[in-house]
Write a structure and sequence with these properties.
By secondary structure, this protein is mostly helical. It is about 75% helix and about 0% strand.
Length: about 575
């Protein structure tokens, strides 16, 4: 048993080491090393490098596995951590023996080697690195061996400390909005991280809270919840709803202008995600050209409200809005007609082509006199209510919030309607749905039209908010982003769309350090979601029930194959 566990630890450690060497070689460790988390103690680059032996040490030291003693688990963690250092040391040696390594690996620089070797030179630094990785692997194993009542509070306290350190700049901006004294900010925060004192305070406070919660808080909360009458539960839900609504309305004044700008961007992607969720999540029609409707809504709004050379209507925002949304809806119907008999990959390719056609037409000289070509459309009109003009991000926040709430209401009503059930039946099996009397032509066209409506609305608000639009703002990546956020959030789930938008759009906007590696994190997150949580981060009940039922049937079929064959 010891030999098998050691072999597993060696294999897992080497795999983790390849991951650590890879993120070093592509420049992430060096780039993120500039971002302090705990001033003078831990940087973001060090966290990304040293978290690998911790995780692998935790995973290989499973004390619940049959025949695994505590000593075996500790040795496995130590070995796994030590093996994690081997590929990284190999990268250091490669830098020594290959003078022209930067011709192939441009990010393997002297600065990176100095980080990996703690500034002690390749020989001594490699030894220190191996010792540090081994100790971290051992710590991961020790963490796995702790009682559950200690393991969870320690984990949550660590996550809270690192999370607050990562978003320290945002917290500073929020605290400054409340005129927090500079002396307090100086004690708790540095230029781009938290101080060691703040880290200790956050860790101890979080640990104490979760220890109390695990021992007494959860039991008391459950007892009080069970003692409430239905009327009291309804009253509490109403209070929470009212408090949440007030908080949402006050968010721009709490967060400040920059964070409100981020919320505006997230809101526009939520609006597009709700539309694509109808097409892909409800109806099961894979649309890769969704950005086309976004562009059509934006260009129609620009043409009708601009005061520049391309002005064709001189309309106000509110007058032009129905035309922009209606044009996008009509485009959705036009796209839907030729693809009625297409499914799966073929449908995805056709919609992808449609999106590229719209982008190419927008940037070409063929329509330059009508829509501006590569120069786009400038001086787009702003929304006005009486004498009040929407100018600041805070103003557009409420406009976007109203559009998102409207889209949520319409989506939820349609999901629970007869049409929504027809979409879901068509998603499961078009042939069976048609045999049951569902008219696929009407059902598909309505799905494309409704999805295009929300996208056109998002495009119209986007054009007015920016004040100018250019063809490069409507490339394929927008469609991929929207599709990714509904997959990560949960297909067919309205809360999942919101959560996916905050994870895939909001976080990269807040963490500028990740902007260069955004697509890499998209890929990693999609792979992790498909492997670990295929139903999404916040799945719809129907989708979750379907996937879990399939998994249960599969497990039952593996364990009892003869019973199924006999049946």
């Amino acid at each position: 048993m010891l030999d098998s566990n050691i072999g597993r630890a060696v294999k897992s450690g080497l795999i983790a080491g390849v991951v650590a060497a890879s993120i070093s070689a592509i420049g992430m460790v060096e780039a993120f090393d500039q971002r302090q988390l705990i001033i003078g103690v831990l940087t973001l680059g060090q966290l990304m490098l040293y978290i690998t032996p911790l995780v692998v040490g935790y995973l290989v030291s499973n004390p619940e596995k049959e025949g695994v003693t505590r000593a075996t688990a500790l040795v496995s963690g130590l070995v796994a951590g030590l093996m994690t250092a081997v590929p990284v040391i190999g990268l250091i040696l490669l830098w020594l023996v290959w003078p022209d390594i930067r011709n192939a690996l441009v990010n393997v620089s002297p600065a990176l080697i100095e980080i990996l070797t703690f500034g002690q030179g390749p020989a001594l630094g490699s030894v220190i690195l191996a010792v540090v990785m081994a100790v971290l692997g051992l710590i991961g194993a020790v963490f796995h061996l702790l009682p559950e009542r200690l393991e969870k509070p320690l984990l949550y306290a660590s996550l809270w400390t690192l999370g607050i350190a990562l978003f320290s700049e945002i917290l500073i901006n929020i605290l400054r909005n409340f005129n927090t004294p500079r002396q307090i900010l100086g004690v708790l925060f540095g230029t781009n991280g938290i101080t060691p004192l703040a880290a200790v305070i956050i860790f101890l406070a979080s640990f104490a809270f979760y220890m109390w919660w695990e021992s007494r808080g959860a039991v008391r909360y459950k007892a009080r919840s069970e003692a409430l009458t239905p009327e009291q539960k309804k009253r509490n839900r109403t209070i929470v709803l009212i408090a949440s609504a007030i908080f949402v309305l006050l968010m721009p004044w709490i967060l400040g202008i920059y964070l409100t700008e981020v919320l505006d961007i997230v809101g526009i992607f939520i609006l597009m995600g709700l539309g694509l969720n109808i097409v892909v999540g409800y109806a099961g029609l894979l649309d890769l050209g969704y950005v086309a409707f976004f562009a059509i809504g934006a260009y129609m709004m620009g043409l009708l409200t601009t005061t520049g050379d391309l002005a064709i209507g001189g309309l106000s925002f509110w007058t032009a809005l129905p035309f922009a949304v209606g044009t996008a809806t009509l485009a959705g119907l036009i796209l839907g007609i030729p693809v009625l008999r297409m499914r799966g990959d073929y449908l995805a390719i056709v919609t992808l082509g449609f999106g590229e056609i719209i982008r190419v037409l927008a940037v070409s000289d063929l329509l330059k006199g009508s829509i501006g070509g590569a120069q786009g459309i400038l001086s787009i009109g702003k929304p006005q209510i009486l004498s009040f003009t929407f100018v600041e991000p805070r103003h557009f926040y409420y406009l976007i919030l109203a559009a998102v709430l409207l889209a949520l209401f319409v989506s939820s009503r349609m999901r629970d309607s007869r049409l929504g059930r027809q979409w879901m039946a068509m998603r499961e099996d078009e042939d069976v749905a048609e045999a049951m009397g569902i008219r696929l032509v009407n059902t598909k066209l309505l799905a494309f039209a409704m999805g295009a409506t929300f996208s056109g609305l998002a495009g119209a608000i986007f054009a007015s908010r920016i004040g100018s639009i250019f063809p490069n703002s409507f490339n394929l990546l927008i469609s991929i982003n929207v599709l990714s956020l509904i997959i990560v959030g949960g297909l067919g789930s309205l809360p999942g769309v919101i959560l996916g938008a905050f994870v895939l759009v909001g976080l990269p906007e807040l963490l500028r350090e990740f902007s260069e590696y955004r697509l890499l994190f998209y890929g990693v997150l999609l792979i992790a979601t498909m492997l670990l949580r295929p139903e999404g981060l916040w799945p719809s009940p129907i989708r979750q029930r379907e996937l879990h039922t399939e998994a249960d049937i599969f497990e039952e079929g593996e364990n009892q194959p003869d019973v199924h064959y006999m049946a």
